């Protein structure tokens, strides 16, 4: 799949992403604090969100807070964190914070259905301490749905997982004035 550097928030942030992604703002209203992209061949989505920094000292606690907030917002019946790690930013001259990565699963009842959808969540957190900001990137990947429409198959999952790694390791905050 072809990828290219994409401007986010008017170019204040850049990241490498698949060229086939659909910008959700072309389809519906998206808050100014978010960038939302949709995969054209599934219900998988990417959300980049500028949030107020949470008062958690340890990186593990901070990203788990955001994951649990997402589970709450999604009315998840169950949620499990499977892994948390850190990818240091070792790019010379780049002030983008190191990336805290989380993978997990949430069981969510979509559209008031009785059957739960399984959604794999890949999340990255960039803590911009000097600005009091947490920049959160979330890939929501439904792997089983009650109607099996839009569910990501195993071969698609591997591609999306690779897209996530490329996106979060290439993400660069170009203009910290975005967080003023």
Automatic annotation (TrEMBL):
<dbReference type="GO" id="GO:0006606">
    <property type="term" value="P:protein import into nucleus"/>
</dbReference>
<keyword id="KW-0653">Protein transport</keyword>
<dbReference type="InterPro" id="IPR007681">
    <property type="entry name" value="Mog1"/>
</dbReference>
<dbReference type="GO" id="GO:0031267">
    <property type="term" value="F:small GTPase binding"/>
</dbReference>
<protein>
    <recommendedName>
        <fullName>Mog1p/PsbP-like protein</fullName>
    </recommendedName>
</protein>
<dbReference type="GO" id="GO:0005634">
    <property type="term" value="C:nucleus"/>
</dbReference>
<dbReference type="InterPro" id="IPR016123">
    <property type="entry name" value="Mog1/PsbP_a/b/a-sand"/>
</dbReference>
<dbReference type="Pfam" id="PF04603">
    <property type="entry name" value="Mog1"/>
</dbReference>
<keyword id="KW-0813">Transport</keyword>
<comment type="similarity">
    <text>Belongs to the MOG1 family.</text>
</comment>
<dbReference type="GO" id="GO:0005085">
    <property type="term" value="F:guanyl-nucleotide exchange factor activity"/>
</dbReference>
């Amino acid at each position: 799949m072809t990828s290219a550097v994409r401007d986010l928030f008017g170019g204040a942030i850049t990241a490498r992403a698949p060229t086939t992604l659909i910008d959700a703002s072309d389809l519906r209203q998206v808050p100014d604090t978010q960038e939302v992209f949709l995969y054209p061949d599934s219900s998988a989505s990417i959300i980049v969100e500028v949030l107020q920094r949470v008062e958690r000292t340890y990186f593990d606690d901070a990203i788990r807070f955001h994951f649990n907030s997402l589970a709450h917002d999604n009315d998840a019946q169950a949620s499990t964190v499977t892994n948390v790690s850190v990818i240091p930013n070792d790019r010379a001259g780049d002030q983008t914070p190191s990336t805290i990565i989380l993978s997990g699963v949430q069981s969510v009842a979509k559209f008031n259905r009785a059957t739960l959808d399984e959604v794999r969540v890949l999340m990255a957190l960039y803590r911009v301490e000097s600005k009091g900001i947490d920049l959160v990137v979330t890939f929501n990947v439904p792997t089983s749905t009650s109607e099996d429409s839009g569910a990501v198959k195993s071969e698609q999952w591997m591609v999306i997982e690779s897209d996530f790694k490329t996106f979060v390791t290439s993400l660069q905050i170009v203009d910290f004035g975005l967080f003023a």
